[in-house]
Amino acid sequence: MRELVYYVAVSLDGYIAGPDGQFDGFLGEGDHMRSLTERFGDAIPTDIATALDIPQPGTMFDTVLMGWNTYAVGLDAGVASPYRHLRQVVFSRTRTTADIPGDTDGITLTSENPVDVVRRLKSEPGSAIWLCGGGSLASALGEEIDRLALKRNPVLFGAGIPLFEPGAYAPRDLDEVGTTVFESGVVFSEYVHTERRS
């Protein structure tokens, strides 16, 4: 069965974005970039990967899940389909395709229960499913997340969008399955739910 992987940058105080939704405090340069890009090239926006000649074979991820606010970051930059190399699923209870300027090809906008969508996707063949964000969507899908892949950055935001909303779901035991400390100060760690570890 396919894994749902929450692969995300996070501050030391547990935020995936700052108070105004900004994420420019995360390190975009350093020795962590090459290592993570080689493994997670599928998680780079299509236009950026093309410009940097980064392969996107779809072997790590073939589907990306986003809440509307995460998706809208690309819209603000004039990009309606940020991950054209992946199947893109955007969750919103209030938005419609009329809110997307430009080509919506490759975008599935849905108000369906995220858990139902993920369970259906997991039953299909394919690579892992990338939970891109944000915090509310991650909280709704907490019980379905199979793997946390966290890029902990040496920065404190003080407030913002949390990795998970407090009290969003019942506590679960996690097993650390790997940690790499980079000279840049980024620490990359992966965790899986204890009961799901093979």
Describe the structure.
- The protein is α/β, with parallel strands linked by helices and 198 residues long.
- It has a single domain, classed as Dihydrofolate Reductase, subunit A, CATH 3.40.430.10.
- Helices cover 20% and strands 29% of the residues.
- The chain contains 5 helices and 10 strands; from the N terminus they run ββααβαββαβαββββ.
- β9 (174-181) and β10 form a beta hairpin.
- The model has no long low-confidence stretch (mean pLDDT 91).
How is this fold's topology laid out?
Elements: E1 4-11, E2 15-17, H1 31-40, H2 46-51, E3 61-67, H3 68-76, E4 87-91, E5 107-110, H4 114-122, E6 128-133, H5 135-140, E7 147-153, E8 161-162, E9 174-181, E10 187-193
Parallel strand pairs: 1-6, 1-7, 3-4, 3-6, 4-5
Antiparallel strand pairs: 2-8, 7-10, 9-10
GO molecular function: 5-amino-6-(5-phosphoribosylamino)uracil reductase activity
Organism: Labedella gwakjiensis
Domain Bacterial bifunctional deaminase-reductase C-terminal: 4-187
What are the key terms here?
198 residues, globular, two-stranded antiparallel sheet, 8-stranded mixed β-sheet, alpha/beta
